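comment on this one:
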Amino acid sequence: MSDLNQAIQNYPELQRQVILSGYRGSIAHGMYVPPKEPTSIDDKDLMYITVPGEDHYLGLKIYGSKGTKEIKKDEWDIVVYEAKKFISLLEQGNPNVLMMLWLKPNYYLHISEAGKMLIDNKHLFVGKHVYRAFTGYAHGQLHRMTHNAFQGHMGDKRRKLVEQFGFDTKNAAHLVRLLRMGIEFLNDGELYVDRHDATELLEIKKGEWSLERINAEADKLFEQSRQAYTNSRLPNGPDTEAVNKLCVDVIRTAIAEQVAP
């Protein structure tokens, strides 16, 4: 095990160029299972948003792999997005990225002035277009739940759980959570990251639901998603000009913060 400072010590930009950071995944959803429990397969997931300096915007530098870096160190699983990449994913309705603007305050690690601008303008990313992203991600979890369950993409502990239950219970919990969150978003225009149904989702994650029950729940939720999309009063999608202006303002603010005495 390592503390967070050890995990990010070789990434100096995470010390001085971060505009927003916080927990994602099981901790943010209230579904974290501590390592001492036999069914624990959770990492500590974090997301960082960085503005790497004006040479990345005026010159030819590219941050990481197409604007993304991934850091895995012991229990830490960290994804880092350059700000333009992050905002483009927000505009597309990416569920994993949208959640960073709807975290409970205690789940944020750092919010700069530029980061606060993103949170304050989260309404710009509310729209019916999220239906495709949420249901698309859910279909991916549904496929991986059984089709990838016995392939070499997981650790030994998770593999043993798959062998015990016959399917990937973590994918099953993600499947149900994503569909429920998407329905709520289409109805309310709000993303409820800290899950009111965490107890039930943890039951799924720990293998207390049968595959038949999960499939029945998924079928019901996919249909409710279609109905929520049809009935939603949200705008069809983001105002691209407003999002572009926000992107410019965020990057300018962040760079000004970096050079301030």
